[in-house]
Design a protein that fits this description.
It is built from 11 helices and 10 strands. It is α+β, with helices and mostly antiparallel strands and 268 residues long. It has 2 domains: 18-182, Endonuclease I-creI (Roll); 211-267, no CATH class.
Length: 268
């Protein structure tokens, strides 16, 4: 467990292990939804990911299933997980959502529960809703569904708990205004280094979200060294990802062992 500077980081507030709590809360921040169909009924958790992220959802499902039941399912071009209704999910629902007059329940971020998140929670939130911009090596995370007040609390949390600075960007897509949180290159490096040690091997398909690409050898080599040192992925797995991302010359400098292997295979 990698805790933030908050003294509450990693502490349970429900009868669930800290990692289950992190995944549920952060999934709701990202692509997940808590559903409460009946007023007196319990809530359920709905997760959906693309086929490309099948291994990521399978990892989530394997952790959540012992507590909330159900299985991951294929639906057309997506994979979904719909938990059974559960009283602990109902508690989380009322902890996350606040009733607004004539508007039903709306997500209400509170530093009280944000401060309980660990690096695992950051990872799930980023993997759900964020991407690493290839040209400027900056992380961007969509937050348009949160609202201005919630975005401000989220940015305050990132600064106070992890010492990570961000800025808000607004754009217009199909007549809708969308908000994104953007991290500078240096802040993106800081963020990724926080989550690197806890990224599960089952999520190898998401290497593209943490693998920065440079044109200069020294900068690229330093980042590759961080990936090898801080993550659970092997040098061969990391080399395989970068094979078509770097020029042949730069790749051979960063992964000399790969060149030796190709030489042995070719001439033997």
């Amino acid at each position: 467990m990698i805790r933030s500077k908050s003294p509450f980081s990693g502490k349970k507030s429900h009868n669930l292990p800290w990692n289950v709590q992190d995944i549920v809360y952060s999934s709701v921040l990202g692509d997940g939804h808590l559903r409460k169909q009946y007023k007196r009924g319990d809530a359920s958790l709905h997760l959906v990911h693309s086929v490309a992220q099948e291994d990521y959802l399978r990892w989530k499902t394997d952790i959540l299933k012992p507590f909330f039941g159900s299985e991951m399912k294929r639906r057309s071009s997506m994979f979904t997980y719909d938990s059974h209704v559960h009283p602990e999910l109902t508690d989380i629902y009322y902890n996350l959502f606040k009733k607004k007059v004539d508007e039903g329940y709306k997500l209400n971020l509170r530093l009280k529960w944000l401060n309980r998140l660990t690096a695992l929670g950051l990872m799930v939130w980023y993997f759900d809703d964020g991407h690493l911009h290839p040209r400027d090596r900056e992380i961007v995370i969509g937050v348009h569904s949160l609202g201005e007040a919630n975005i401000a609390k989220l940015r305050q949390y990132l600064k106070s708990a992890w010492d990570i600075d961000t800025r808000v960007e607004m754009s217009k897509e199909k007549d809708k205004h969308r908000a994104r949180i953007r991290f500078s290159t240096n802040q993106s490096k800081k963020f990724i280094r926080v989550i690197m040690p806890i990224i599960p091997r089952e999520c190898k398909s998401l290497l593209y979200k943490i693998s920065m690409v440079y044109k200069q050898h020294e900068a690229q080599q330093r980042w590759i060294s961080d990936l090898i040192r801080l993550t659970s992925f092997s040098e061969n797995e990391i080399a395989e990802f970068y094979r078509d991302k770097l020029s042949a010359k730069l790749f051979s400098k960063c992964f000399p062992k790969e060149n030796d292997l190709l030489y042995i295979v070719y001439f033997n």
